[in-house]
Amino acid sequence: MGATSVASPAPLNSAPSSFPSLKALKFTTKQQELLIRVSALALIYVLAFVVRLFSVLRYESMIHEFDPYFNYRTTLFLTKNGFSEFWNWFDSESWYPLGRIIGGTLYPGLMVTAALIHRILHFFSFAVHIREVCVLTAPFFASNTTLVAYFFGKEIWDSGAGLVAAALIAICPGYISRSVAGSYDNEGVAIFALLLTFYLFVKAVNTGSLAWSLASAFGYFYMVSAWGGYVFIINLVPLYVLVLLVTGRYSMRLYVAYNCMYVVGMLLAMQIRFVGFQHVQSGEHMAAMGVFFLLQVFYFLDWVKYILNDIKLFHSFLRITLTCAITVGVLALSIGTASGYISPWTGRFYSLLDPTYAKDHIPIIASVSEHQPTAWSSFMFDFHILLFLFPAGLYFCFKRLSDATIFVVMYGLTSMYFAGVMVRLILVAAPAMCLVSSIAVSATVKNLSSLVRAKSKSPQGSGKPLSGSKAAAKASADQSLPFQKNGAIALLLGALYLLCRYAIHCTWVTSEAYSSPSIVLAARGHGGGRVIFDDYREAYYWLRQNTPPDAKVMSWWDYGYQITAMGNRTVIVDNNTWNNTHIATVGRAMSSYEHEAYEIMLSLDVNYVLVVFGGVTGYSSDDINKFLWMVRIGGGVFPVIKEPDYLVNGEFRVDKGAAPKMLNCLMYKLCYYRFGEMTTEYGKPPGYDRVRGVEIGNKDIKLEYLEEAFTTSNWIVRIYKVKPPKNRW
Amino acid sequence: MAKGTNDAQLLIQSLRKAYASTPTSLKIIDLYVVYAVATALIQVAYMAMVGSFPFNSFLSGVLSCVGTAVLAVCLRIQVNKDNKEFKDLPPERAFADFVLCNLVLHLVIMNFLG
Fold it and tell me: Residue A199's closest CA among A144, A126, A124?
């Protein structure tokens, strides 16, 4: 296309002094292209940030859900007390009476990042509160991820694919779900680190430079500090190296890239206390070490073959070396595994390979809703058109195989498998889907637009013989497909329509499904107006202001982080779930009769009990719906709790036909205390539970060892005080 | 068997002959690699004798030897004129990369030594 000339030459001469010469604005094609690219990237950067701000605009700037409250509390501690205190922090306010070594059992990347941003902003005199920084960290890093996706797309295909990848990942719902404003969780930063590490590694393999490989080692270090999902990187990269070796596409650059990244990356990763020595002791990391040794042997043999120049001698040398290497390797591996030095795959990652493992053996992992296998509707919801663009992109990748496209194909396929096993891992597959789909979109649009722009050459056109033959060929091709240009325009419009629908879908999904803070509930009232239920914060602030500072609160582990962060009181169990027996003790207490539970509560020094009850409002994630998990987890450690005791014909009921143990257990009593007098719905009897849809069985509840301390305005959170033991006389 | 030892002798001789033709700079790098690997093996032997406590010190010692050996091999690959892929990489740049990576490696080692 010709350069844009903003004004024709004639008027310019008539007004020489007032306007600067507009001819200076005449850009060359290259400059135009750069301008378009930079402005598109800038818009995508802002878009990625802004689309995640729905909940801040609708509610307020607050931290969502459960896990982010722990991260917020630790970041607060870090900014107040400095890094050394944070690194060596022993917390006595959770897991009473055991305590928790927080410094050694968390991934510090997120907290350190937020604290660093906070410090930089304060240095420039922006006096923002750390909570605002925490709320907006995830959208900020999502914007950075789009930039990395652009460079990654440019590396594997071209800059057009990079732009499309950046645009796709800016609004992809699979990524937005864990990185909205307020979702201050490890994944917000970890996906940025993951994509950065992969990009730097692919760059290192493409250039063979030690500097890029060092950068990818630092990217890996950041990923290890941010999220436990780094295990994916340390297994995918060796698998990729293995695939390259097996298919014969190896080169010297691969050796340089992998070795530097592995050794320096492993050393850096071991600086994180939580990871510790796992890189040399855990079965999940052994693939990387195995491939490391394999690479040394392989390239040594390759070098020997090169300098020997004699096939027969080399074969004998090969035989000797291979037998030695294989014997040593197998011996080391078998001794390590058999003696238990190399620990087997832990439950969380083993259940990825065998999805039925957790359900049978580890109920705590099975009970988390994010760990369930993914339904097709979730895939459609989170990926939309990327679902069919992904295979199309795979086709293009296979058409133009290079080291980089092989990597992206492997990343896509493995992450799709894991996304199918666990809902939470759709997040890890999202960047791969966007990258591969962007190749499909970019290549298709490029082909179609080149068809549209092809000038139909007349047969008697150019004089040069070379272009003449080409023109003749093109003319014949044109003649064979007379409506080629129209077809191409139609297909382009179709592609544009699909992308518009994708954008609409993503915005709708973000607005409806992924922008709820979970701690503040909203519903439509009678007149259509919005009703806000702020019961959780009401209860936590009541705890903060009306209980003694050393009070201990017993609740189910879901609420532990929120109670310590907002209520500022000691809890018995929290979301870290590191001690299954302790959680089982709480589960046993909740499912026992009141006098048995009282013994357990006295042994744990419990002062207050907190339960969540949704019967009045219809809030369905309450403790009665979670009750069977409490029974299962408690029963897993204490055989005295048997699940069939609480069921009637295998059915979980709370009405008159419920099991007698269910009607008299502590959880039932605490949730339904005084509920029998309450009318919840017009036309229904008092004591009608709106979640279960039945009238409760035991309305006449009397508490002997506890007394009601506080019930929130919508009865969602109920707090009970444990009475001290009676005097002997 | 006589044929076996004959084969092995022939192998060693031809290896020695082929290796003699490599340039001196590459031979120096090879010597450095052998020295680093030997140090690592000595450390492993010492650990086998006295036990592995504190483990982080042992790991940092062994990994510094292995790391610097591996980095030296990478330098050798990049500097070797027979490698077509690194034809337009100036050897100064390769050496600077080598120094930088070693610096980072040893800084981390010193932090990890405990």
Answer: A144
